[in-house]
Task: inverse folding
C-alpha cells in the first residue's frame, strides 16, 4: 500500500453487527480535523482474539511507514487483552511516527498525558472482559446444575443425525449431497457422524 495521509481500523465481534457506525463517526472526526481516510482496515473477530488478519496487515503497514495517522472508534477495537496488549499497538504507532486517535476515549497520542489515558482505558477494557467471562462462567454453572446444555444449539439433532446415517449407510449418498439435502454444513455433518467435538458428549 502506498503511504496514506490517514488510515482507519474498525472491528466488530458479533456477526449480527456492522461497522457502519464506527465508519461514520471516524469519517466525521477525520473531516473535522482536515484528514482524509486513505485506507480502511476491517476485522470481524471475537474480542478474545489478539490480532485479526486486517489488524496484522495494518501493523505491517505502520511498521513500513505507510500510515502516518490512525483513527479508531475506541481503543478496545485494537485490543481488550489488557495493558500490555494495548501498548503493543500504541508503542508501534509511536515508534513509527504514526499518530493514534481514538474517538470514544477522546484519546490522541500527540496530546500530553496520552500514555496515562491509554493505560487506564486498557485496564478498563480488560476488567470488562474479565467480568464478561465471570458472567458466562456463572451462567454455565447454573445451566449445568439445572441439567441444561450450555452453548449454541447443535445444528445436527438426533433426528437429523439418524437421517444422515440412513442416507450415508443405506442410500449410499455422498456427504456433499447429504449435507445439502439436510441443510447442514458439510464439516458440521462430518463431526456429528464421527462423534467429534461436542457431538462426542451427546447422549
Result:
Amino acid at each position: 500500500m502506498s503511504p496514506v495521509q490517514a488510515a482507519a481500523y474498525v472491528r466488530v465481534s458479533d456477526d449480527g453487527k456492522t461497522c457502519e457506525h464506527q465508519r461514520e463517526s471516524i469519517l466525521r472526526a477525520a473531516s473535522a480535523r482536515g484528514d482524509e481516510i486513505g485506507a480502511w482496515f476491517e476485522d470481524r473477530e471475537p474480542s478474545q482474539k489478539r490480532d485479526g488478519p486486517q489488524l496484522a496487515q495494518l501493523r505491517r503497514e505502520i511498521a513500513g511507514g505507510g500510515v502516518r495517522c490512525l483513527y479508531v472508534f475506541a481503543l478496545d477495537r485494537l485490543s481488550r487483552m489488557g495493558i500490555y496488549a494495548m501498548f503493543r499497538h500504541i508503542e508501534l504507532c509511536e515508534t513509527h511516527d504514526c499518530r493514534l486517535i481514538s474517538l470514544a476515549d477522546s484519546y490522541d497520542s500527540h496530546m500530553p498525558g496520552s500514555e496515562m489515558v491509554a493505560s487506564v482505558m486498557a485496564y478498563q477494557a480488560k476488567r470488562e472482559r474479565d467480568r464478561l467471562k465471570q458472567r458466562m462462567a456463572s451462567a454455565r454453572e447454573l445451566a449445568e446444575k439445572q441439567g441444561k446444555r450450555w452453548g449454541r444449539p447443535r445444528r445436527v439433532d438426533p433426528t437429523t443425525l439418524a437421517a444422515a446415517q440412513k442416507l450415508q449407510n443405506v442410500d449410499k449418498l455422498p456427504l456433499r449431497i447429504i449435507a445439502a439435502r439436510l441443510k447442514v454444513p458439510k464439516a458440521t455433518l462430518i463431526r456429528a457422524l464421527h462423534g467429534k467435538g461436542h457431538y462426542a458428549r451427546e447422549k
Summary: The chain has two domains: 6-127, 158-198. The chain has a mean pLDDT of 84. DSSP finds seven helices and five strands in the chain.
